[in-house]
């Protein structure tokens, strides 16, 4: 079943009532959700580019006027081309000693840095923490998500990918 | 001569003899491969012709399977089965593919199916023969079983003289006679210490267990009473389901039943494809998880070649195709090792459905159709597909639950992008600690314990709310911590506390669920040992979209305490939680000859005497989103409920906190906002461009600067994952000459070069159900 715009706004804001949330979890999905969701997000951001796909809590793949696709933070910061890995253009802070890890957890409850480190990725403009990785030293930076936007819009949603705005 | 196949051939029972069963399965597999539809079913005949009957059959059989589980459960005495519900019953078609399953540890949909398929492929039909009333028992890990303590009872179903299916029942038994007591012991490094294993053995005829089996099996394990009652539970359940199937056949006719038995699998296959299209986004998803194996420690008593610190590595790449099928590739995973955390491909592929029923396919019809809609690649030689028949598996879950936690993150990125925020889950907790041990209990009987308090860990945070506190475990979605009173009856261990574990959850805009901790006092035990099992040096889950991973584990144990004297004198003793391990308090209320407080969360048997202490800490779940976005009200609630230590409210959440007149914690929203701006400025100052940081990290790699366990993980992954090796080198821009091998690490070479798989045994035809 479909939900009204207000319910989806509440879902985004985390203020939705349990009854509706439970219904969302237990009943078949509402296929119109994506459009409504993207419309709400588009209205909330302050940049002019068209959101094609939300990538994360503050990240979007957007389409610019010239048709190019980039990853943007909702503060307006542009990371890179949509094909690239945004993390490579973020600021990184690595917690790799007991002291910096103890700022997060009691000592016995923190990873041992000779086994595992914490990598925090920040937006270089607004300082939001966009991702945290807990990996061994030397670990390559993974590209988490490579969506097939064409197949998603055309084959799954049955709608064309939005045209670049003139 | 070319054989012609008809689909209809698949819908008949099998009259055994002349390898009829093997030919039948070959036929089903050939048609599946040729058409892309299970058993060649391109068009449903029963489902289309009589959808009401089809759905009625689903409801009736499913209800019957669930009912059998609920009824049979009452026979068991083991709290693992009776309290925690660690049992499952599944109905199979003649080819060994699952139609329907009960609730419970549904990883066994596939493992029992693999046992049936093994019997089919290896000619059980001729020897030992398959007859009405036969009972087969299996718990062999080399056939795909998760670990030896999951014991399967499998019976064939005959209609007149045709085999029309199978029923399997599994319980998690409390002990299987491994080198150490408990169902998932630490210590076995080879199969030969992993516990008593039987390979699809005929253990009963005419519905009655055979005497040689009963006598032999009781001598091979520690907890005989639980063992026998567990077996009765399984037999009662499978017979109830067999009777139900025969009743249904009487009503609808054998042809209709068999049509159903294949169509429902194809239906399950299409169902998964539909669901993937309805909920995700096509594309590629990547994530990785790790977990520690800290065996180079005096408290881990294993052979010298196993005394090694190493790390489980499980990277995945999920490809969701435009047609709604998907491929899960685990290239780069580390090699199997000399510990009991290895897994077989079937336990890996089947176990994933336990997780998926909690997210992607929360449906009653979970069957082998999902398997046929999925392509798995588990490279040969990795910990999830060992190429050696000596591997131990008694706690496979240690690696499995850790590896799967990353899959939550990948799926959650899809749900998030699609707007189905209600489905987002940052991951599952490491489902430990496992309090295990044995000896003579408070009733003067030989006994073993495995506390399933681990069935109630914190769950991962979502995109709209916190994770659940001390609530569930990935392997059994019905998880329950069990009543203290029941555990005290089952274990010579008195509760001195059961509390929320503060700071165990990953922080975030929405935090993970917290775990809990129980302090146990040994009482009434004789010749008693216990040990610890869980993650300690590493955390196996991961935060999502700015959230942090959960805390790691640690251990606390105290020996030769003065608690008995203190109780007699009426003096205070340690009670409640180990609330702030940076400022421990238990030690203020006792004297002990030895206290162990460290990150060594894997140990082998340690002697415990009455009035010794053991802390059982059950882990929390990972967080979602930047913690600076958590509301002041939520932080107040965390502080009030004991979920968060005050200093971390300040450091992690940037909260400005104080206590009001009544002593209640409050957060000042105005000052908090200012603190958070300051923290963001600090981030911008301390954060460095990734490409600058990479140069430094690269220099460390060139110099091979890392701990031995980290290097061992990479070396073993490079050996069995050549593509991972190439990608690693390309990412860091390493010279062609750079390599890292196990040989150069100066550690024991056991397993590096010489290996021998089970398929090299005479007359063994292994099942290969994944891409290798
Ligand atoms: Zn930003």
UniProtKB/TrEMBL annotation, chain A:
It holds the Pfam family Acetone_carb_G. InterPro entries: Aceto_COase_bsu/gsu (IPR016750). This is Acetone carboxylase, gamma subunit. It comes from Candidatus Carbonibacillus altaicus.
UniProtKB/TrEMBL annotation, chain B:
Residues 50-627 form the Hydantoinase B/oxoprolinase domain. It holds the Pfam family Hydantoinase_B. GO terms for biological process: glutathione metabolic process. InterPro entries: Hydantoinase_B, Oxoprolinase-like. One of its GO terms (cellular component) is cytosol. PANTHER family: 5-OXOPROLINASE RELATED, HYPOTHETICAL 5-OXOPROLINASE (EUROFUNG)-RELATED. This is Acetone carboxylase, alpha subunit. It comes from Candidatus Carbonibacillus altaicus.
């Amino acid at each position: 079943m479909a939900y009204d715009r207000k319910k989806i706004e509440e879902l985004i804001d985390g203020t939705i009532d349990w009854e509706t949330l439970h219904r969302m979890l237990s009943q078949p999905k509402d296929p119109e959700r994506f459009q409504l969701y993207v419309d709400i997000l588009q209205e909330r951001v302050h940049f002019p580019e068209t959101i094609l796909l939300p990538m994360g809590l503050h990240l979007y793949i957007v389409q610019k006027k010239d048709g190019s696709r980039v990853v943007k933070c909702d503060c307006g910061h542009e990371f890179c081309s949509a094909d690239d890995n945004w993390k490579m253009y973020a600021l990184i802070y690595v917690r790799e000693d007991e002291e910096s890890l103890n700022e997060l957890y009691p000592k016995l409850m923190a990873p041992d840095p000779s086994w595992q480190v914490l990598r925090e990725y920040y937006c270089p403009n607004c300082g939001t923490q966009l991702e945290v990785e807990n990996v061994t030293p030397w670990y390559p930076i993974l590209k988490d998500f490579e969506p097939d936007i064409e197949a998603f819009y055309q084959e799954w949603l049955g709608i064309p990918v939005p045209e670049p705005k003139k | 001569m070319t054989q012609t196949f008809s689909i209809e051939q698949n819908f008949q029972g099998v009259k055994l003899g002349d390898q009829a069963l093997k030919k039948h399965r070959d036929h089903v597999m050939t048609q599946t491969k040729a058409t892309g539809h299970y058993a060649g079913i391109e068009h449903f005949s029963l489902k289309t012709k009589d959808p009401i009957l089809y759905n009625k059959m689903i409801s009736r059989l499913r209800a019957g399977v669930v009912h059998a589980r609920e009824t049979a459960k009452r026979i068991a005495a083991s709290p693992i089965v009776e309290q925690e519900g660690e049992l499952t019953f599944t109905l199979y078609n003649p080819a060994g593919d699952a139609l329907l399953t009960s609730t419970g540890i549904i990883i066994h949909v596939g493992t029992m199916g693999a046992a049936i398929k093994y019997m089919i492929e290896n000619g059980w039909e001729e020897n030992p023969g398959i007859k009405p009333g036969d009972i087969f028992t299996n718990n062999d890990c080399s056939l795909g079983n998760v670990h030896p303590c999951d014991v399967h009872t499998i019976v064939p179903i005959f209609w007149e003289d045709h085999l029309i299916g199978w029923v399997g029942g599994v319980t998690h038994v409390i002990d299987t006679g491994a080198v150490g007591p408990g169902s998932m012991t630490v210590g076995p490094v080879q199969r030969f210490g992993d516990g008593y294993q039987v390979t699809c053995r005929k253990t009963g005829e005419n519905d009655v267990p055979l005497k040689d089996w009963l006598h032999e099996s009781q001598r091979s394990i520690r907890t005989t009473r639980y063992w026998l009652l567990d077996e009765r539970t399984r037999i009662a359940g499978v017979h109830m389901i067999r009777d139900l199937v025969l009743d249904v056949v009487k009503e609808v006719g054998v042809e209709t039943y068999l049509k159903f038995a294949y169509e429902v699998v194809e239906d399950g296959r299409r169902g998964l494809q539909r669901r993937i299209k309805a909920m995700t986004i096509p594309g590629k998803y990547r994530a990785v998880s790790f977990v520690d194996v800290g065996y180079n420690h005096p408290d881990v008593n294993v052979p010298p070649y196993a005394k090694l610190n190493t790390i489980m590595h499980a990277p995945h790449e999920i490809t969701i195709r435009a047609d709604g099928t998907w491929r899960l590739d685990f290239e780069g995973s580390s090699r199997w090792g000399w510990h009991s955390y290895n897994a077989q491909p079937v336990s890996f592929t089947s176990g994933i459905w336990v997780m998926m029923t909690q997210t992607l396919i929360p449906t009653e019809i979970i069957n082998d159709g999902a398997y046929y809609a999925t392509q798995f690649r588990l490279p040969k030689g990795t910990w999830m597909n060992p190429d050696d028949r000596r591997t131990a598996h008694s706690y496979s879950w240690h690696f499995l639950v850790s590896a799967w936690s990353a899959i939550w993150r990948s799926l959650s990125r899809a749900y998030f992008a699609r707007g189905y925020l209600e489905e987002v889950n940052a991951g599952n907790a490491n489902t430990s600690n496992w309090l295990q041990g044995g000896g003579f209990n408070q009733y003067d009987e030989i006994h073993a314990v495995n506390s399933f308090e681990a069935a109630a860990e914190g769950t991962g945070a979502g995109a709209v709310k916190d994770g659940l506190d001390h609530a569930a475990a990935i392997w059994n979605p019905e998880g329950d911590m069990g009543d203290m009173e029941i555990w005290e009856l089952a274990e010579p261990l008195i509760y001195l506390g059961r509390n929320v574990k503060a700071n165990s959850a990953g922080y975030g805009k929405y935090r993970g669920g917290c775990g809990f901790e129980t302090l146990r006092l040994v009482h009434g035990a004789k010749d008693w040992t216990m040990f610890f099992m869980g993650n300690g040096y590493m955390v196996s889950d991961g935060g999502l979209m700015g959230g942090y991973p959960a805390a790691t584990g640690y251990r606390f144990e105290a020996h030769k305490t003065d608690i008995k004297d203190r109780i007699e004198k009426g003096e205070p003793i340690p009670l409640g939680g180990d609330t702030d391990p940076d400022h421990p308090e238990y030690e203020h209320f006792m004297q002990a000859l030895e206290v162990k407080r460290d990150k060594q969360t894997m140990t082998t048997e340690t002697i415990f005497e009455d009035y010794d202490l053991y802390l059982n800490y059950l882990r929390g779940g990972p967080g979602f989103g930047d913690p600076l976005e958590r509301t002041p009200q939520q932080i107040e609630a965390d502080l009030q409920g004991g979920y968060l230590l005050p200093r971390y409210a300040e450091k992690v959440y940037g909260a400005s906190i104080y206590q009001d007149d009544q002593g209640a914690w409050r957060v000042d929203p105005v000052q908090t906002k200012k603190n958070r701006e300051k923290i963001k400025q600090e981030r911008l100052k301390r954060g460095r461009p990734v490409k600058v940081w990479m140069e430094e990290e690269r220099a460390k790699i060139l110099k091979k600067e890392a701990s031995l366990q980290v290097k061992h993980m990479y070396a073993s992954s490079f050996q069995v994952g050549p593509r991972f090796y190439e990608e690693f080198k390309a990412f860091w821009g390493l010279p062609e000459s750079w390599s890292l091998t196990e040989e150069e690490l100066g550690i024991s070479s056991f397993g590096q070069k010489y290996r021998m798989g089970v398929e090299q045994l005479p007359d063994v035809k292994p099942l290969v159900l994944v891409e290798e």
